[in-house]
Amino acid sequence: MVSRMERFTGSFTQQEPIPEEGIAAALDILRHGRLHRYNTAAGEVSPTALLEQEFAEFTGARYCLAVASGGYAMATALRAVQVCPGAPVLTNAFTLAPVPGAIASIGARPVFIETTRDLTIDFPHLEQMARATGAQVLVLSHMRGHLCDMDRLMTLCNSLGVRVIEDCAHTMGAAWNGVPSGRHGVIGCYSTQTYKHMNSGEGGFLVTDDAGLAARSVLLSGSYMLYERHLAAPPPEVFEALRLDVPNVSGRMDNLRAAILRPQIALLPDRAARWTALYRVMERGLDQTNGLRLIPRPEPEAFVPSSFQFTLPGWDPGRVAALVARCAARGVELKWFGAPDPVGFTSRYEHWRYASPQSLPQTDAVLAGLIDLRLPLTFSPEDVALIARIIRAEVLAVGQGEIERVTLGQMGD
């Protein structure tokens, strides 16, 4: 029996401190004042250029561009592949607002694809909508770190003539069958916003093996004619045919954020292991809880779980709202994707009224009972075990209450 007095008192939004190496490098930059990536002393290589080189090596990509945010990386990727205003762009219905926002920001039209009960993109609906709309680009959101069968996805998209841009905001360091997330499609986009796998407050990366796409992206980011100062970009001759035709849509990363990020690349494998350990503690704690379904993780998926999801199949909105409130009263912050109105970062496709309305009954059924919670690395395994006990107890309590109401109703008939 779990005591109703048990309560979690930690913070779901407190991150680990920036590594001392990053703090020292940032202080050096603040002291000399050369924050702009192209503002360097004689013989100096900017921290941003070094960061791009190091992240390219980490992902195995030929080219890398550091930018102001993950959303900017996606919009730049769409511009680089020359998506035109009004063009349909396919994307997951289960994602966060920056993904359709990036599509809408260039005047394109988001076309949402159904979500499976395992929180990945639905392949039959993807094929149907690609053929129906003639869309030539898919922004594939690896939402909350769940990778679909990337081998099957790429085979399908290649057969449809659809180019894939990967949104890897939640999968930095993850892989499918040994291929890193972001390396299946033509461009991979990453975020270094505070709640992601590396933390610079805001920031992002774009990686690709395509020299033309890399050159377009560098020019779009606002390189002016200083692209030769990049270490992870194509040679200058690739820029020659593009440099006067590609617009400047400034969104560069600065040296201060690059200094903060550089030492964090080496920490990613350890962070992945620690996140996985926390995830498994939560998984064990919630396993075999009546009324709660865990999301299976496929064997080929190497994931980096900075958050945790489960579903409550068949629960009505009142019961889900009661669970969220009861857990909150005990210090556990759950995010509910089925809530009628967006709350904080949590919203769903029908809330984004700048996109054309669509009927997505399969996704609606999944999101109606979808619960999400962060797993910051400031949590200990003991913290996560306590959180799991609280969730389990409240799921059973709310579920039992429903059973009792049904039983009493039957007795009165």
Description of the structure:
- The protein is an alpha/beta fold.
- 40% of the residues lie in helices and 13% in strands.
- It has two domains: 20-265, Type I PLP-dependent aspartate aminotransferase-like (Major domain) (Aspartate Aminotransferase, domain 2); 268-412, Aspartate Aminotransferase, domain 1, CATH 3.90.1150.10.
SSE order, one letter for each helix or strand: HHEHEHEHEHEEEEEHHHHEEEHEHEH
Count of helix runs? 13
Tell me about the biggest sheet?
Answer: 7 strands, mixed
Q: How many domains make up the 3D coordinates?
A: 2
Query: Residue-averaged pLDDT, rounded?
Result: 95
Strand residues, percent: 5-15%
Structural class: alpha/beta
For the termini, the CA-CA separation is: 33 Å
Radius of gyration: 23 Å
**Weakly predicted, low-confidence segments:** 403-413
Indicate the CATH architecture of the largest domain.
Answer: 3-Layer(aba) Sandwich
Shape: globular
Kindly state the percentage of residues in helix.
Answer: 40-55%
Query: What is the count of β-strands?
Result: 14
What topology, given as strand order, has the largest sheet?
1-9-8-5-4-2-3
CATH superfamily of the largest domain: Type I PLP-dependent aspartate aminotransferase-like (Major domain)
Spell out the key features of this protein.
4-stranded antiparallel β-sheet; 7-stranded mixed β-sheet; 413 residues; Aspartate Aminotransferase, domain 1; disordered C terminus; 13 helices; 13% strand
